Amino acid sequence: MRQTLRFGRVAGIPVGAHWSALGIVALVVVALGSGVLATAAPGAGRTAYWVAGVVIGLLLMASLLAHELAHALTAKRCGMEVESVTLWALGGVTEFRDEARTPAGEVATAAAGPAASLLLSGLAFAVAAVLPPGVPRAAAAWLAMMNLILGVFNLLPGSPLDGGRVLHGLLWSRYGDRARADAGAARSGYGIGLALTFAGFMVIWVWSPLGGMWLVITGWYIAGAARSEILSRTARRGLGGVSVRDVMTATPDLAPAWLTVQGLVDTVVLGSHQSVFPVVGFDGAPLGVVSLESLLAVPAERRADTRVEALVMGQKPPRVLSPDDDAAALLERPSRTGGLRAVVVEGGLVTGMITDADLGRTLQQALLRPAAPV
Ligand SMILES: [Zn+2]
């Protein structure tokens, strides 16, 4: 996730916030300033509620940061590389460069976040307990409650929640098989997501539409994330040990940039099985890509005097991979024009290309192989 605002580095890890994190602060400030605190500690001035709202909004962001940093620092201690810690609209996210090496490391890393939240909750409750009745006490109690919810909710045992990672680590250590643990944790996440969605509908029906709606949205989000995790892990494993060379369409028909569209159609396109063509310059380097659609978009009367070069002008150059690259890299970014995922270049020349169709075929072949995972 891109960081709009950089706070600095903690143990070498860049810590920052995406602008969407302002949404949480705004929500908290408005909720506390306009009602929650006035109900909990009536009689104080309006200004006191809004000031407390801002302070608690910022403290909640600090709590989210502490939760993520607990993940990040524990991960580092367990030998994992951490890319960044970022706050955004749905809380915090820690991005890792690699996966946990051991089940114990995975359990410790996943549990550290909720542990930090529960610790902060206890701290805030203790502060609230010693304060006299009033706005600061109500504010501290509210912060304590939020951290408690954050800690407990994240411990629900289903991927993608922290509890799901804990479950994954435990299953991994029990089965000694990561793939089986993947499937178990993701399935559990899917079940929890659906259960939360169902509970949300029940709450809407018998109690409060607003609280229920929140549960429905969160549950649905978790179920969706668990499902896409099942799919992406299957895909990743399907491509494990596969190189770009194994996936690519070798020596594809190319579109020389200097030809006219009509020239390209006559000499290349009409005799080809491809629907997308890498465009190359005089030196053989890839400049872009044209598809049958982009050729059809050129009016018939202009095909004789429009050069292929003009069609790729302003186009971002295609992704370039080498034949020995890991095919799993193809999953990182979506396809572009005509379903082209990447152009394969060897010694400066285009020797292959990979389309969605190539990738789909490889994934399906992997699933058909004996002992297919999941
Ligand atoms: Zn967490």
Care to describe what's here?
The strands form 3 sheets. A 4-stranded mixed beta sheet has the order 1-2-3-4. The two termini are about 30 Å apart. It has 12 helices and 11 strands. The model has no long low-confidence stretch (mean pLDDT about 85). The protein has 3 domains: about 1-155, no CATH class; about 170-240; about 245-370, CBS-domain, CATH 3.10.580.10. It has about 375 residues and is an alpha/beta fold. Bound molecules: zinc ion. Zinc ion binds near residues 67 and 162.
Q: What's the arrangement of secondary structure elements?
A:
Elements lengths: L4 E6 L2 E5 L4 H19 L5 H32 L4 E7 L2 E6 L6 H28 L4 H20 L7 H14 L2 H29 L2 H30 L5 H4 L1 E2 L4 E2 L4 H7 L8 E5 L5 E6 H5 L11 H5 L7 E2 L18 E7 L2 E7 H13 L6
Parallel strand pairs: 2-3, 6-7, 9-10
Antiparallel strand pairs: 1-2, 3-4, 5-11, 7-8, 10-11
Helix pairs in contact: 1-2, 2-3, 2-4, 3-4, 3-5, 5-6, 6-7
Give the bound compounds: zinc ion
Helix content: 55-70%
Largest sheet: 4 strands, mixed
Order of helical and strand elements: EEHHEEHHHHHHEEHEEHHEEEH
In short:
The chain is of the alpha/beta class. It has helices at about 20-40, 45-75, 105-130, 135-155, 160-175, 180-205, 210-240, 245, 260-265, 290-295, 310, 355-370, and strands at about 5-10, 15, 80-90, 90-95, 250, 255, 275-280, 285-290, 320, 340-345, 350-355.
Brief descriptors of the model:
binds zinc ion; elongated; CBS-domain; 374 residues; single chain; four-stranded mixed beta sheet; alpha/beta; 3 domains; 12 helices
